[in-house]
Amino acid sequence: MRFYVAIPFVLLVTLFYSIVSILVSLVDRSGRAYHRLMRQWSRALLWLFGIRTHVHGAENLERGTCYVYLANHASYLDIIVLGVTIPDSIRFIFKRELARIPFFGWTLALGPYILIDRADARNAMGSIERAARQIAEGASVVIFPEGTRTRDGSLGAFKRGGFMLATRSGVPMVPVAIKGTYALLSRTDRRVRPGTVEVFIGEPIPPRPDMTRSQEQELQEEIRSTLMAMLGTPGPAAQGTAPDGFVRGTDEKG
Prior knowledge:
The structure is a single chain. With 254 residues, the chain is α/β, with parallel strands linked by helices. The chain has a single domain (2-252), classed as Glycerol-3-phosphate (1)-acyltransferase (3-Layer(aba) Sandwich), CATH 3.40.1130. The protein is built from 8 helices and 8 strands; from the N terminus they run ααββαβαβαβαβαβαβ. The chain has an 8-stranded mixed beta sheet, sandwiched between helices. Strand 3, helix 4 and strand 4 (114-116) form a beta-alpha-beta unit. The chain is globular, with a radius of gyration of 17 Å.
Protein backbone atom coordinates (compact mmCIF):
# COMPACT_ATOMS: atom_id res chain seq x y z
CA MET A 1 0.00 0.00 0.00
CA ARG A 2 2.82 2.43 0.88
CA PHE A 3 4.27 2.11 -2.62
CA TYR A 4 1.03 3.21 -4.32
CA VAL A 5 0.56 6.12 -1.91
CA ALA A 6 4.17 7.21 -2.46
CA ILE A 7 4.13 7.16 -6.28
CA PRO A 8 2.39 10.57 -6.85
CA PHE A 9 4.83 12.21 -4.43
CA VAL A 10 7.78 10.43 -6.08
CA LEU A 11 6.71 11.85 -9.44
CA LEU A 12 6.29 15.36 -8.03
CA VAL A 13 9.65 15.26 -6.23
CA THR A 14 11.38 13.92 -9.34
CA LEU A 15 9.81 16.60 -11.54
CA PHE A 16 10.84 19.35 -9.12
CA TYR A 17 14.45 18.19 -8.76
CA SER A 18 14.73 17.52 -12.50
CA ILE A 19 13.76 21.10 -13.36
CA VAL A 20 16.01 22.61 -10.68
CA SER A 21 18.93 20.35 -11.68
CA ILE A 22 18.64 21.32 -15.34
CA LEU A 23 18.73 25.01 -14.40
CA VAL A 24 21.64 24.48 -12.00
CA SER A 25 23.66 22.52 -14.58
CA LEU A 26 23.51 25.52 -16.93
CA VAL A 27 25.35 27.76 -14.48
CA ASP A 28 27.47 25.35 -12.43
CA ARG A 29 29.64 23.29 -14.75
CA SER A 30 31.61 21.77 -11.86
CA GLY A 31 28.77 19.34 -11.14
CA ARG A 32 28.98 19.81 -7.38
CA ALA A 33 25.64 21.59 -7.01
CA TYR A 34 24.04 19.03 -9.33
CA HIS A 35 25.27 16.21 -7.14
CA ARG A 36 24.03 17.91 -3.96
CA LEU A 37 20.58 18.08 -5.55
CA MET A 38 20.86 14.44 -6.53
CA ARG A 39 21.60 13.54 -2.89
CA GLN A 40 18.54 15.47 -1.72
CA TRP A 41 16.36 13.78 -4.34
CA SER A 42 17.73 10.37 -3.32
CA ARG A 43 17.02 11.02 0.36
CA ALA A 44 13.46 12.07 -0.48
CA LEU A 45 12.79 8.92 -2.52
CA LEU A 46 14.22 6.60 0.10
CA TRP A 47 12.06 8.26 2.76
CA LEU A 48 8.93 8.02 0.58
CA PHE A 49 9.55 4.34 -0.11
CA GLY A 50 10.32 3.59 3.55
CA ILE A 51 13.92 2.50 2.96
CA ARG A 52 16.60 2.92 5.61
CA THR A 53 20.32 2.77 4.80
CA HIS A 54 23.23 1.83 7.03
CA VAL A 55 26.81 2.60 6.00
CA HIS A 56 29.84 0.60 7.14
CA GLY A 57 33.45 1.51 6.43
CA ALA A 58 33.11 5.21 5.57
CA GLU A 59 36.17 5.75 7.77
CA ASN A 60 38.21 3.96 5.09
CA LEU A 61 37.91 7.02 2.85
CA GLU A 62 40.21 10.03 3.04
CA ARG A 63 38.55 13.41 2.59
CA GLY A 64 39.71 15.23 -0.54
CA THR A 65 40.88 12.05 -2.29
CA CYS A 66 39.34 10.95 -5.60
CA TYR A 67 38.36 7.31 -6.00
CA VAL A 68 36.85 4.94 -8.50
CA TYR A 69 34.09 3.09 -6.64
CA LEU A 70 33.36 -0.45 -7.91
CA ALA A 71 29.91 -1.57 -6.75
CA ASN A 72 27.73 -4.61 -7.33
CA HIS A 73 24.52 -3.86 -9.22
CA ALA A 74 21.42 -5.63 -7.90
CA SER A 75 18.66 -3.07 -8.47
CA TYR A 76 17.72 0.36 -9.80
CA LEU A 77 17.70 1.37 -6.13
CA ASP A 78 21.50 1.09 -6.07
CA ILE A 79 21.89 4.52 -7.67
CA ILE A 80 19.87 6.44 -5.09
CA VAL A 81 21.33 4.38 -2.24
CA LEU A 82 24.89 5.23 -3.30
CA GLY A 83 23.85 8.83 -3.94
CA VAL A 84 23.04 9.08 -0.23
CA THR A 85 25.66 6.84 1.35
CA ILE A 86 28.94 7.65 -0.43
CA PRO A 87 30.36 10.75 1.30
CA ASP A 88 31.96 12.11 -1.85
CA SER A 89 31.19 14.19 -4.95
CA ILE A 90 30.56 11.27 -7.28
CA ARG A 91 29.77 10.87 -10.96
CA PHE A 92 27.79 7.86 -12.18
CA ILE A 93 28.35 6.17 -15.51
CA PHE A 94 24.87 5.41 -16.85
CA LYS A 95 23.56 3.62 -19.94
CA ARG A 96 22.04 5.56 -22.84
CA GLU A 97 18.59 3.98 -22.37
CA LEU A 98 18.08 5.91 -19.11
CA ALA A 99 18.43 9.23 -20.94
CA ARG A 100 15.13 8.53 -22.74
CA ILE A 101 13.07 8.68 -19.52
CA PRO A 102 11.11 11.98 -19.47
CA PHE A 103 12.53 14.62 -17.11
CA PHE A 104 14.70 12.22 -15.07
CA GLY A 105 16.57 10.98 -18.13
CA TRP A 106 16.84 14.45 -19.63
CA THR A 107 18.34 15.65 -16.38
CA LEU A 108 20.94 12.87 -16.50
CA ALA A 109 21.84 13.74 -20.08
CA LEU A 110 22.33 17.44 -19.29
CA GLY A 111 24.17 16.92 -16.02
CA PRO A 112 27.78 15.97 -15.22
CA TYR A 113 27.14 12.21 -15.08
CA ILE A 114 28.65 10.14 -17.87
CA LEU A 115 26.49 8.51 -20.54
CA ILE A 116 27.73 5.33 -22.19
CA ASP A 117 26.39 3.52 -25.24
CA ARG A 118 27.27 -0.12 -24.69
CA ALA A 119 26.35 -1.01 -28.28
CA ASP A 120 28.91 1.41 -29.72
CA ALA A 121 32.50 0.53 -28.84
CA ARG A 122 33.86 3.90 -29.99
CA ASN A 123 31.27 5.78 -27.91
CA ALA A 124 32.02 3.58 -24.92
CA MET A 125 35.73 4.42 -25.14
CA GLY A 126 34.85 8.11 -25.39
CA SER A 127 32.79 7.78 -22.20
CA ILE A 128 35.74 6.23 -20.42
CA GLU A 129 37.92 9.13 -21.54
CA ARG A 130 35.33 11.64 -20.27
CA ALA A 131 35.23 9.83 -16.94
CA ALA A 132 39.02 10.02 -16.74
CA ARG A 133 38.81 13.79 -17.30
CA GLN A 134 36.21 14.09 -14.53
CA ILE A 135 38.60 12.31 -12.17
CA ALA A 136 41.45 14.60 -13.22
CA GLU A 137 39.22 17.57 -12.39
CA GLY A 138 38.63 16.33 -8.84
CA ALA A 139 35.56 14.08 -9.00
CA SER A 140 35.13 10.45 -8.03
CA VAL A 141 33.39 7.99 -10.34
CA VAL A 142 31.02 5.12 -9.56
CA ILE A 143 31.17 2.08 -11.83
CA PHE A 144 29.01 -1.05 -11.83
CA PRO A 145 31.62 -3.42 -13.33
CA GLU A 146 29.01 -6.10 -14.04
CA GLY A 147 27.60 -3.72 -16.66
CA THR A 148 23.98 -4.50 -15.82
CA ARG A 149 21.69 -5.49 -12.96
CA THR A 150 21.92 -9.02 -11.65
CA ARG A 151 19.18 -11.44 -12.68
CA ASP A 152 19.24 -13.59 -9.55
CA GLY A 153 20.89 -11.48 -6.84
CA SER A 154 24.36 -13.00 -7.25
CA LEU A 155 27.45 -11.10 -8.37
CA GLY A 156 27.93 -11.36 -12.13
CA ALA A 157 31.09 -11.40 -14.22
CA PHE A 158 32.91 -8.09 -14.67
CA LYS A 159 32.96 -6.37 -18.06
CA ARG A 160 36.32 -5.02 -19.16
CA GLY A 161 35.33 -1.47 -20.19
CA GLY A 162 34.42 0.00 -16.83
CA PHE A 163 37.13 -1.94 -15.07
CA MET A 164 39.67 -0.60 -17.57
CA LEU A 165 38.81 2.93 -16.43
CA ALA A 166 39.27 1.86 -12.82
CA THR A 167 42.72 0.42 -13.43
CA ARG A 168 43.97 3.25 -15.66
CA SER A 169 42.52 6.22 -13.78
CA GLY A 170 45.56 6.67 -11.56
CA VAL A 171 43.45 6.90 -8.40
CA PRO A 172 42.63 4.30 -5.73
CA MET A 173 39.83 1.81 -6.36
CA VAL A 174 37.25 1.14 -3.66
CA PRO A 175 35.02 -1.96 -3.63
CA VAL A 176 31.47 -1.20 -2.45
CA ALA A 177 29.02 -3.95 -1.50
CA ILE A 178 25.30 -3.10 -1.55
CA LYS A 179 23.13 -5.57 0.37
CA GLY A 180 19.35 -5.47 0.42
CA THR A 181 18.30 -3.66 -2.76
CA TYR A 182 17.62 -6.88 -4.67
CA ALA A 183 15.07 -7.94 -2.07
CA LEU A 184 13.34 -4.54 -2.27
CA LEU A 185 13.32 -4.13 -6.06
CA SER A 186 14.67 -6.94 -8.20
CA ARG A 187 14.93 -6.88 -11.97
CA THR A 188 11.48 -8.46 -12.33
CA ASP A 189 9.67 -6.42 -9.66
CA ARG A 190 7.24 -3.63 -10.50
CA ARG A 191 6.98 -2.09 -7.05
CA VAL A 192 9.40 -1.05 -4.34
CA ARG A 193 9.17 -2.66 -0.91
CA PRO A 194 10.12 -0.86 2.32
CA GLY A 195 13.10 -2.23 4.19
CA THR A 196 16.77 -1.78 5.07
CA VAL A 197 19.84 -1.59 2.84
CA GLU A 198 23.41 -1.97 4.04
CA VAL A 199 26.38 -0.50 2.21
CA PHE A 200 29.90 -1.76 2.94
CA ILE A 201 32.76 0.48 1.79
CA GLY A 202 35.98 -1.48 1.50
CA GLU A 203 39.55 -0.35 1.91
CA PRO A 204 41.01 1.59 -1.05
CA ILE A 205 43.23 -0.38 -3.40
CA PRO A 206 46.21 1.69 -4.58
CA PRO A 207 46.47 2.32 -8.34
CA ARG A 208 48.67 -0.05 -10.28
CA PRO A 209 49.86 1.72 -13.44
CA ASP A 210 51.33 0.04 -16.51
CA MET A 211 49.79 -3.37 -15.87
CA THR A 212 49.82 -6.04 -18.53
CA ARG A 213 46.51 -7.50 -19.69
CA SER A 214 47.07 -10.62 -17.57
CA GLN A 215 47.87 -8.51 -14.49
CA GLU A 216 44.71 -6.49 -15.12
CA GLN A 217 42.67 -9.72 -15.27
CA GLU A 218 44.24 -10.91 -12.01
CA LEU A 219 43.34 -7.63 -10.29
CA GLN A 220 39.82 -7.84 -11.71
CA GLU A 221 39.35 -11.28 -10.19
CA GLU A 222 40.92 -10.10 -6.92
CA ILE A 223 38.45 -7.23 -6.59
CA ARG A 224 35.53 -9.45 -7.63
CA SER A 225 36.53 -11.95 -4.92
CA THR A 226 36.70 -9.09 -2.41
CA LEU A 227 33.18 -7.98 -3.33
CA MET A 228 31.90 -11.55 -3.03
CA ALA A 229 33.39 -11.80 0.46
CA MET A 230 31.84 -8.47 1.46
CA LEU A 231 28.47 -9.63 0.16
CA GLY A 232 28.75 -12.88 2.07
CA THR A 233 28.38 -15.01 -1.06
CA PRO A 234 27.65 -17.74 -2.01
CA GLY A 235 24.05 -16.62 -1.87
CA PRO A 236 22.00 -13.71 -3.16
CA ALA A 237 23.62 -10.28 -2.92
CA ALA A 238 20.55 -9.00 -1.16
CA GLN A 239 20.82 -11.29 1.84
CA GLY A 240 23.19 -12.15 4.63
CA THR A 241 24.64 -10.40 7.65
CA ALA A 242 27.60 -8.07 7.92
CA PRO A 243 30.76 -10.15 7.38
CA ASP A 244 33.36 -10.16 10.13
CA GLY A 245 36.15 -7.67 9.69
CA PHE A 246 34.07 -4.79 8.31
CA VAL A 247 33.65 -1.92 10.72
CA ARG A 248 30.19 -0.62 11.41
CA GLY A 249 30.12 3.08 10.72
CA THR A 250 27.67 5.97 10.37
CA ASP A 251 23.99 5.27 9.82
CA GLU A 252 22.16 7.10 7.03
CA LYS A 253 18.40 7.20 7.25
CA GLY A 254 16.37 7.34 4.10
